[in-house]
Amino acid sequence: MPVAWNPQARLGPRGVGYALRSMGSHTPDLWPAPLASTAVDADLRVPGSKSITNRALVLAALADGPSTIRGPLRARDTLLMAAALRALGVSVEDVDDDWLVTPGALRGPASVDCGLAGTVARFLPPVAALARGAVRFDGDARMRERPMGPLLEALRALGATIEDDGRNALPFTVHGAGTMPGGSVEIDASASSQFVSALLLAGAHYDDGVTVDHVGDRVPSMPHIEMTVSMLRDRGVDVDTGEPATWRVAPGPIKALDVAVEPDLSNAAPFLAAALVTGGRVRILGWPDQTYQPGARLHEIFTAMGGHVRHDSEGLTLRGPEAVQGVDLDLHDVGELTPVVAAVAALATGPSRLRGVAHLRGHETDRLAALATELRRLGSDVRESADGLEIRPRPMHGEVFRTYGDHRMAHAGAVLGLVVPGVQIENIATTTKTLPDFVGMWTSMLGREAAA
Ligand SMILES: O=C(O)C1=C[C@@H](OP(=O)(O)O)[C@@H](O)[C@H](O)C1
Ligand SMILES: C=C(OP(=O)(O)O)C(=O)O
To answer: What is the atom index within ligand 2 of the atom nearest the CA of 116?
Structure first.
């Protein structure tokens, strides 16, 4: 019989009692999350960053010559981006593990499937406005609900013709005229930093460039905008960030550039969390010295939760503590880390407050509602506020953990399943959005064969 996990028990999450779990047959769409029979001890390499790969693809498509993207992520979000660029007339060829991107005249008619990728849905309409012809955008049912309005309005103000059904959301058609006037625009980017990144990525090809003024509540995920600015500057684009909440991209060429993609540090989060909650050790190989990825904050966050983190030339190593500590954190800048941090918080010895992340309600699912529901289902005491979660750890028990088509919900469930017997994750395949083989990596981290 499965035993319940109890944060108050002195045994702590490393207790051998967790190791027992029925290995019987399971419903095909439910993945029995493996328990850690001992403290995790592993060295891992995670695939390339989604955010860097998709920016590199867009910039290579707009560049003045061919670019090689080394070690790109090949997962649903980036394969959709590559397919969309091909549909627009760009050549994206596989060369061993790399992608060779050769720009072509952007043209419609074309159809773009955004799937559930915010980066595809937000970064490509400003590019499609530069194409000659009609470019139709659509995506998964949930992508039709994710915020798009401020970006579409901004593009219209900059000279684009966009036809939609009056909801200012997917599906819509961008009628590209081959050129875009550009200029200055105000936008409320409080729902997504991707609105700003999108305008900056294409803006150098607009006749007057683009000046984006954010008006509204603070912009989330600022490191992702800094990543955009830095990748533009690496390609010779003049970006002025002198005034707060204003970005100006001067018109001009985007230089072709060969780049190596950093590992995806947000996807490293569940693996590092595995060391934290089992009192083990995980090293992520090739952790960059300098990065704009939000995962850089994991060092500080997991240290605050009791982990011992060391970054050296080999990678980033996390050693788990005897007991995980609760935290009070503003995750506004690094919202995509929230699901995994919430899972660890539910396994802590004290309460946690995660705040500043109202924009997560517009992500792959309403992540605040989803986390509150699923953590409660397993036994936690969770209070959902407008912009965050308060989590009071309680003894947890095995249950179905629903993912709502959200890869990071699946990561959160897997972390819980390491120490809570009997957790079954619905639709683990949703992890392929940004990681081609989460199950394989997870089970090999635990020294097991993949069973899904
Ligand atoms: O630009 C990017 O690559 C991203 C920006 C962020 O979006 P939001 O600002 O909408 O949170 C982040 O959550 C997303 O995973 C990736
Ligand atoms: C919010 C996320 O994705 P997207 O790029 O689809 O917005 C995410 O990966 O956590």
So the answer is: 6
